[in-house]
Amino acid sequence: MTTTLKGTTAQQDTNIIPFVPTGSFYFSHGIQAFQKRRFSAAVKWLKKAIEASPEEPLYPCQLSVVYTEVGSYHAANQVLTEVLAEHGKEYVDCYYLMANNYAHLGLLNDAKKYVDTYLEQPGDGEFEEAAKQLRDMLDSLEEEDEDDDWAFEDEDELIIYQETAFYHLEQEEWDEALSVLDEMMQLFPEFKIAKHRYAYALFMNGEREKAIQLEKETLEKEPANIHCDVNLAAFYLKQGMTEEAAFHIERLRNVFPMHEQQKLAVAETLARAGYYQEAVERFRSLRDKQVTRRRVYYKWYSISVYHTGNPSKALQLWEKGCKQFPKMGNEGGPWEQE
């Protein structure tokens, strides 16, 4: 038989102040979970914050950031659309966040529309610099698409040159790569990526100053050129010039390219710079089989995974790379980086 005690106990209970969680309480837990990369927990806490304080636009905006981080771009934009419908132009950062999500989805026209809307707002927004970089990147992608539209009399010839150059670069046969790339630049001057591969091969072949100068000149003409930052960051890191490399690395940390080749290049650079967790996330986002079978993919993904606490997966990736590129076996393993 259960007995309920009354009297003194009841009187004591009246002195207890009940704890009622507020939106800010849930929000703080959501932020802590997000910072620890416990995304499911972050979503749970942030949804509770929104339920507790539905009038606070900051909470759904942060929820959208979590969705973006895990690749749920449509869900993120749905949340942001609701914030804009409720709060209008009071929360202009939504325009940038939506533009960023549309860019990830490859919907470049929508991305342009929203980033332009954000930049048109009065005052200095929190994401103004990032928005300008996104706009430059979108313009650059548009130019690349236009470049891709030109027709060659013999497109097969270009493909043969590409594959031949790529083979020599992967095998670290720098003289042969330089010879092929030099011919490519003369025959197909509009094919811009060739000059960046040429600069890389030049650097690896010992002509470091010339390679750096080539990329500097290109970057001065094309400030949003990702390939310049990738090469210059690699060049400086290989020479131990960390301060010079830092400028280009920071630029790349804020760039999320649409093209798989560029995604791989950024991931590799972040790994070289020691941003292993960020690199792992970039490598995980790669889907194109032509990219995920590259030597640099196996090597630097393996190194990044190893340094983020997963040695078994690192070894698995390294062994796959060694099977396809035997020279990797001479480099030790993922625990031995350049």
From TrEMBL:
Repeat keyword on record = yes
Per UniProt, which keywords does this protein have?
Repeat, TPR repeat
Q: Where are the TPR repeats?
A: 23-56
Q: Looking at the record's lineage, which domain of life comes first?
A: Bacteria
Q: Could you tell me what this protein is called? A: Tetratricopeptide repeat protein
Q: Which lineage is the organism of this entry classified under, starting from the top rank? A: Bacteria, Bacillati, Bacillota, Bacilli, Bacillales
